[in-house]
Write a structure and sequence with these properties.
Length: 674
């Protein structure tokens, strides 16, 4: 279930956030069409989400993070909140597909009801697939472009179908019979789906005796089990059939469905909050970044203010890594294609790589990963067992091909910078190294207020490289490290990569949304492919263990998460502009310039704004989410002071410039308000 906490506060969030609502099927379309639903699916865990009527600030006073059981709905911890956070919290509980089989059945049936309604309103429409998804359902149609007016017609017809209380009846037929029926109603996409179904018999669900679809279920018993007032059609988007750009473009209708009207109302409230905090809009409004059409989709331009935030993040990242024994690297953005052949990327990852470049009769490739480069640096000289562990890290920019339709702001791009690192170690060092990575991850993420994680451990799949003994040892080391850390985790049996077990960590933002962030991956494959070795205590050649790890994931995606997490209201230490000096009239300009120079000399990010009346200057600063404003009039010039207004704390009064500077530096150092 989702737990949405309504807060009656008008104060703003230090660690506030929005939830981006991804459109992602809960299970694959093919499994919806032809696979029975396992009981295990309904036993999947719940998550909690915090919903605020207005943005608020939430401090974490704890020096350590908590890895929560994914099955536990986590309420806001008032004991860890600042005084700005209200004590009264109204909870609205929203179920998920995983926590409520009833909701899943409602959403799946709504997809069918919508398809039936579309074909009643538009008889020439051809149907394809219609799964349930995270917050509702969708269905793809081969039809002319639809408008908002069309959606209203479709919803009206859906309400009629729901009101008729038609039964949903499951029927089993032979493959030949299914083929015959589909051919008779001229549904070519359903024929293609039928060909992909391997199981027998073929199952069909009927709505009354008027409409049917290939489907394995589950569904509600009758359409009357759906509350039509808890269903809403949301939008229309283009979608290629089977996700293939060479196939027809379809019309995808998205809808949301809930068990009752209260749940729908809470979801819509939450959705509005997500829209308000969308990093793509805030990125433009706050002049942080852009995607330039003239340069190409998925390529990020960091504007000066966004670049300042990135610089702060990178400096912090480098400081923590060097303190924890990592050597920092810089490596090229391209390499010979042969390198990617050795690594296996050309065999297993080619569809995500850009075309090769012919340079002086040799083929080169933009890098999709940093790993082979770090291995080459390892191979530059022989190593002894005494050298281990060897830790190297790089903020390395990589390039991966993504379909234009899948690009999404900073969350899905074609060029991005990974906070990549690799550890080369001995077998008996795996546990300590993993524990060290967990400690580093916690230290890094706590800087941004992320103190609740969901942790998953993925184990050996059916097909894997490496012998049983090393898999058992490595997996045990990962488990022991998590246990020593005191973090709860779930085991994804068989979910590891073919080359080693891994730990995945999701961070929970201020609204309770979980974002995939950190990954720790043991690798038995690349050391073998590149034939890397060391000399052991018996003077024999052995192969080291290699650990891949990323803490933030990519800087672009993490920045997008931060924008939504803070709703653009960056805390003072991270804000691109920490203070804005505002003269009442132009006669105070020279004094203001001196103040700016003095503050810049103390390392404070400050700017001078003039040319408008003071109320307009204040409004502009509020709009740009500047944490501090220092107003300067004749009295301030005379006394050598500034009158300070905080975006978070209101009027702070008049103070000397040195005092103002000192309070800012103290607040930045301690991650607090001025």
């Amino acid at each position: 279930m989702f737990v949405l906490h309504r807060m009656a506060s008008s104060s703003r969030p230090l660690f506030g956030s929005s939830l981006r609502l991804p459109i992602k099927p809960s299970v694959s379309s093919s499994s919806i069409l032809c696979n029975p639903i396992s009981k295990q699916f309904y036993n999947r865990k719940s998550q909690s989400i915090y919903l605020f009527k207005k943005s608020h600030y939430r401090f974490s006073s704890s020096p350590a993070a908590v890895a929560t059981d994914p099955g536990t709905a986590v309420a806001a911890e008032e004991s860890n909140a600042s005084d700005d956070v209200p004590k009264e919290v109204e909870k609205v509980v929203l179920p998920t597909n995983e926590s409520s089989e009833t909701l899943l059945r409602i959403r799946h049936t709504c997809a069918h009801v919508m398809a039936m309604a579309v074909q009643k309103v538009f008889p020439d429409a051809k149907v394809t697939i219609g799964p349930w998804i995270e917050h509702g359902f969708y269905y793809d149609f081969d039809i002319e472009s639809l408008t908002d007016k069309d959606l209203k017609k479709i919803k009206k017809e859906m309400d009629r179908i729901i009101g008729r209380n038609l039964p949903l009846v499951r029927e089993e037929v032979t493959r030949d019979e299914a083929h015959k029926r589909i051919t008779s109603i001229n549904e070519p996409y359903k024929l293609e789906i039928l060909e992909s179904i391997k199981e027998e018999p073929i199952t069909i669900y009927h709505i009354g005796d008027e409409w049917w679809d290939l489907c394995a279920g589950p569904h509600v018993e009758t359409t009357g089990n759906i509350n039509r007032r808890a269903v809403q059609l949301e939008s229309v988007a283009g979608a290629y059939w089977r996700g293939d750009v060479n196939k027809p473009m379809l019309q995808r209708i998205y809808g949301t469905a809930w068990e009752n009207e209260e749940q729908l109302k809470a979801y819509l409230h939450f959705k509005e909050e997500a829209k308000r905090r969308d990093h793509r809009r805030l990125g433009q409004d706050l002049d942080l970044f852009s995607i330039q059409d003239d340069a190409g989709g998925g390529l990020v331009f960091w504007h000066p203010k966004g670049a300042i935030v990135r610089h702060i993040i990178e400096d912090l990242w480098k400081k923590i890594h060097t303190q924890r024994g990592y050597d920092l690297l810089y490596t090229p953005h391209v390499a010979k294609a042969e390198l990617w052949s050795i690594s296996g990327h050309l065999d297993f990852y080619k569809e995500n790589m850009y075309d090769q470049m012919n340079i002086e009769e040799e083929l080169y490739q933009l890098r999709p990963m940093n790993c082979p480069y770090h291995i080459l640096i390892y191979k530059r000289k022989p190593h002894s067992y005494r050298d281990f562990p060897i830790r190297v890290a790089e903020l390395g920019t990589v390039y991966r091909y993504e379909l234009s339709g899948s690009l999404h702001g900073l969350f899905r791009v074609r060029g991005f910078t990974q906070d990549d690192a690799h550890i080369f170690c001995l077998e008996d060092q795996i546990k300590d190294e993993i524990k060290g990575v967990l400690d580093l991850t916690e230290q890094m993420l706590l800087q941004f207020g992320f103190d609740k994680y969901e942790v998953n451990l993925s184990t050996r799949p059916e097909k894997a490289v490496g012998d049983d003994e090393i898999w058992v040892k490595a997996t045990g080391a990962l488990k022991d490290a998590l246990t020593d850390k005191g973090w709860a985790y779930e085991v994804d049996e068989g979910g590891g990569a073919f080359y080693g077990p891994k730990i995945d960590l999701k961070i929970e933002d201020a609204l309770g949304r979980k974002w995939q962030c950190s990954t720790i991956q043991v690798d038995f494959n690349l050391p073998q492919r590149f034939d890397i070795t060391y000399i052991d205590s018996n003077s024999e050649k052995k192969r080291p263990i290699m650990i891949h790890r990323a803490v933030l994931g990519s800087l672009e995606r993490f920045f997008g998460v931060l924008i939504e997490h803070y709703a653009g209201d960056f805390p003072l230490w991270l804000s691109p502009i920490q203070a804005r000096i505002l003269p009442v009239t132009d006669t105070q300009l020279e004094y203001c310039k001196d103040v700016v120079e003095k503050m810049k000399g103390s390392g404070i990010r400050v700017e001078l704004c003039t040319g408008e009346r003071l109320p307009k200057l204040i409004r502009n600063a509020e709009k740009m989410k500047i944490p501090l404003m220092a107003v300067v009039g004749p009295k301030e010039v005379e006394t050598g002071c500034v009158t300070v207004r905080s975006r978070f704390g209101g009027e702070l009064g008049t103070m000397e410039v040195d005092d103002f500077i000192g309070r800012i530096k103290n607040a930045v150092e301690n991650r607090t308000f001025v």
